[in-house]
C-alpha cells in the first residue's frame, strides 16, 4: 500500500474514532435526555429561525410542556443529529456562553452544538388555511412524516400499546398543534412544498390504528394527491399500516405508487407482545398474522422495501435480535428504536436499559442487516427517522458522515 493511502486510511480511522466517541454521547442524550438553561432557550428563536417540536403523533420529552416551545433537534460537532428530548433532571444541559450554545455534562463543558433551521414550508399554509408544519413534520436527512390521524381505535377498548402515548399526546396538545385528521389534499400540498424546497425526497404516511377499509382507501387517496401535486409517479413514499386481514390490500398500496411499506410488529417475543400490545394481539389477526403480512409484503414490495419496527429495550436483547435476524433473512428492514417511557403512556415512570445496551443492540442490528445485503439507501427510504443509533452506525461505517 502506498504511503499516501496509509495516511488517508489513518485519517479515516481517526475520524471514525471521533464519530464513535460522539455517538456514545448521543446515546446518552437519546436515553437520558437533555436540559436547557432558560437563557439559552430564550436566545433560540424557536418557531422562527429554529425548527420547533410538533406533537403530531407522540410526546418524546420527559414531561409535557404546553405553551413552551422547544427545539426539535440539535447537531453535534462531527455531524451527528440528536433529537431534543427535554429532561430537567438530565446530567446534560445546553448552556449559552458568548452567544454560543454549549453542551455541558455535570458542569464540564463538552462542545458547541447548533440547532436545526426551520424549513421554509413550515411557514406556509394549505389551500384551506392549515399550517403545513402541522400536516407533515421534517424529521432529518430529507425525511418528512405525515401523521395523518391521532385516532387509535384501541383506546376505546382499553387496549393501547403500553409504550404508546399517541392518545395522551392528542389530548394534551389538541388546542394548539394537533389537527385530528389530515385530508389527502392537505398532505399532497405539503409534500409538494417540501419537495419543491429541496429539503425532502421521502415521505412517510402513518397514524393511529383505524378500521382496515377506511385506512386503505385513505392511503390510496393520499398517494393520488401527492402524485398530482408533485408530478411524481414514484414519490418515494412509505405507507405505515396495520396488518391487513385482506392481504391483497398490500398489493393495492404498491400499485398506488408507494415505494415502501411499514408494518410494525413492535415486539418479537409473543408473550411480551400479548402483554405490551393487547390491541394488536387481539386484533388484525394477532402476532402470527402480523408476521404473515410482513412476509407477504416482502414478496410484493421486494428486498429492502419493507420495514418492521421493534421497540428496543422492552424485551430481552436476544429476543429482539432473533427477530432482526429473521427479518434480515427475508430482506425486511428492522432497526429497533430506543424505547423511552414517555409521558401519558401506561409505562410512564419505567426505565429503559442503559445507553450502552442500546448501542450494543444497534451495532449487532447493523451487522445483521448488512450481511443480508440490505443497503443504507434502502434503510433510508423505508424509514421516517434517520437519527436512530442504527442509522448513525450505518452511516459511519459506510463513510456517509
TrEMBL record:
GO molecular function, one term: metal ion binding
Keyword Cell cycle: no
Keyword Iron-sulfur (UniProt): yes
Domain named Radical SAM core: residues: 160-315
Superkingdom of origin organism: Bacteria
Keywords from the named record: Iron, Iron-sulfur, Metal-binding, S-adenosyl-L-methionine
Gene3D superfamilies named among the record's database cross-references: Aldolase class I
NCBIfam families associated with the record: variant_rSAM (NF045502)
Protein name in UniProt: Radical SAM core domain-containing protein
Organism: Clostridium polyendosporum
Amino acid at each position: 500500500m502506498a504511503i499516501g493511502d496509509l495516511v488517508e486510511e489513518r485519517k479515516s480511522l481517526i475520524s471514525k474514532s471521533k464519530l464513535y466517541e460522539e455517538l456514545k454521547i448521543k446515546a446518552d442524550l437519546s436515553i437520558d435526555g437533555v436540559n436547557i438553561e432558560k437563557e439559552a432557550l430564550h436566545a433560540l428563536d424557536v418557531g422562527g429561525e429554529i425548527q420547533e417540536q410538533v406533537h403530531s403523533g407522540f410526546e418524546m420529552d420527559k414531561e409535557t410542556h404546553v405553551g413552551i416551545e422547544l427545539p426539535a433537534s440539535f447537531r453535534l460537532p462531527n455531524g451527528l443529529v440528536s433529537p431534543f428530548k427535554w429532561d430537567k433532571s438530565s446530567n446534560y444541559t445546553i448552556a449559552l456562553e458568548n452567544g454560543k450554545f454549549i453542551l455541558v455534562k455535570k458542569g464540564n463543558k463538552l462542545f458547541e452544538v447548533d440547532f436545526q433551521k426551520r424549513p421554509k414550508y413550515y411557514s406556509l399554509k394549505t389551500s384551506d388555511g392549515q399550517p403545513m408544519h402541522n400536516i407533515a413534520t421534517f424529521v432529518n436527512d430529507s425525511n418528512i412524516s405525515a401523521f395523518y390521524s391521532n385516532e387509535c381505535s384501541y383506546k376505546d377498548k382499553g387496549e393501547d400499546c403500553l409504550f404508546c402515548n399517541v392518545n395522551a399526546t392528542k389530548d394534551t396538545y389538541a388546542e394548539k398543534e394537533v389537527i385530528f385528521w389530515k385530508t389527502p389534499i392537505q398532505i399532497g400540498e405539503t409534500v409538494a412544498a417540501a419537495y419543491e424546497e429541496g429539503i425532502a425526497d421521502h415521505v412517510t404516511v402513518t397514524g393511529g390504528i383505524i378500521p382496515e377499509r377506511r385506512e386503505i382507501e385513505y392511503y390510496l387517496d393520499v398517494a393520488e394527491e401527492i402524485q398530482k401535486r408533485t408530478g411524481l409517479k414514484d414519490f418515494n413514499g412509505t405507507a405505515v399500516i396495520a396488518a391487513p386481514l385482506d392481504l391483497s390490500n398490500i398489493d393495492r398500496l404498491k400499485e398506488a405508487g408507494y415505494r415502501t411499506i411499514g408494518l410494525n410488529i413492535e415486539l418479537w417475543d409473543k408473550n411480551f407482545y400479548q402483554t405490551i400490545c393487547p390491541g394488536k394481539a387481539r386484533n388484525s389477526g394477532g402476532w402470527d398474522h402480523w408476521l404473515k403480512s410482513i412476509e407477504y409484503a416482502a414478496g410484493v414490495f421486494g428486498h429492502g422495501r419493507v420495514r418492521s419496527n421493534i421497540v428496543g429495550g422492552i424485551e430481552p436483547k436476544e429476543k429482539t435480535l432473533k427477530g432482526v435476524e429473521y427479518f434480515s433473512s427475508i430482506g425486511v428492514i428492522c432497526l429497533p428504536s430506543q424505547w423511552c417511557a414517555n409521558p401519558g403512556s401506561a409505562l410512564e415512570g419505567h426505565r429503559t436499559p442503559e445507553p450502552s445496551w442500546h448501542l450494543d443492540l444497534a451495532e449487532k442490528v447493523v451487522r445483521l442487516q448488512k450481511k443480508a445485503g440490505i443497503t443504507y439507501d434502502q434503510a433510508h427510504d423505508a424509514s421516517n427517522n434517520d437519527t436512530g443509533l442504527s442509522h448513525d452506525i450505518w452511516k459511519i461505517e459506510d463513510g456517509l458522515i
